[in-house]
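Bug #77: duplicate submission created two jobs. Keeping one. Sequence:
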Amino acid sequence: MKKVKSRIFIGLGLLAVGLSLLIYWGVTKGSLPAAGLPGIWRNIEDELAVGKACTIKDEQGGLVTMLSRRVRPGDEVITAEGKHYRVRKVAGDEAVARLLGMDRDLLAYQELFSQMEVPAAKMAWGARPVAIYHTHSDESYLPSDGADSIPFRGGIFQVGDSYSGQLSQNGARVLHDKTPHDPHDDNAYYRSRRTAAQLLKKNPIAIFDVHRDGVEDAGFYRRIISNQDVAQARLVVGRENPRLSANLDFARRLMAYANQTHWPIIKEIFIGQGNYNQDLLPTALLIEAGTYTNRKDQAMRGISQLADAVPAVLGITGPSSRPGAPEFGKPVTDPTARQGGGWAALAWIIIITIIGGGTFLVISSGGWNKAKERLRYFFGREFADFLGPRLRKITWKKNPEEK
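Kept job's structure:
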């Protein structure tokens, strides 16, 4: 009977290892989110209903930004001017952020790009395409579409078309996937992950999830840029994401060069809780093209201006300008930027398995002390039987359950 119990424990252990490897395979193939323990469950919907917004202010009460998504302590904002804020407290729909200073990496990229002449068109893209998809396929623009949401055929698809068209004019091969992922609920990112994983099979150089914001004030995004009436864009990066450093580096490069080309077409970078499927690629970004109260043509012109910067940023190989600066000598798609998310997920799965198994052992044994005795017996006598007669020569502590 005792040996049967031991074999059961071995079987459960092998089952746990098998499940862990199965989940790891799913992570590396893109069907599961590759993040730490929180990120496995945090690929969720953080957007608020249209017309509702969270306001972030600095410690002096000045407006930093507002956005139609939940804000939590630890979220960060990098403005077009280079100011870097971190949210330290949230009360209802208002948050207070501390100024960390000027973002040195963004300023370094701005300095680099100002000293370089990088053609933004007709780059040698090779065979790798730029991929575009839409997690929230219902998102629309009220003044132009007549509604803020049109399920399965939102105005956001036409904004994606403008992005795709301008990228194509600039020499890119583009994959614009218009698979709908409705309804607009907590599972939308899980449904769109399947689309993103399919796009990854085409080996894209970058992948963009195009959205629009839900801030009510149309003037918050509207600007005259390069003599055009446009809606600015915001870049969103998930901070519960094992590729955070690479994604954020790409966002900084893109904002620095895009704003040099069309100042300030990118309003800011927001680093918030969540994953947003950005663990799939180091050059994966979420773009918010204006808000629902902007006209769709404004958002289309704005995202086209953003597209002017993408080829140059993806192909940049300029020299580093100062010690400790980002590695400008490498393109953002360099293999060393590909931080492995699968191993992090596997580590968390193993930790969960150990914790769960330990809890089960304590409960089934009737207490911590009896559980320790069982473990001593298991790793002693049973492993000796399993590994061979050589280990049987060692004298082990008697099984506490033996009479």
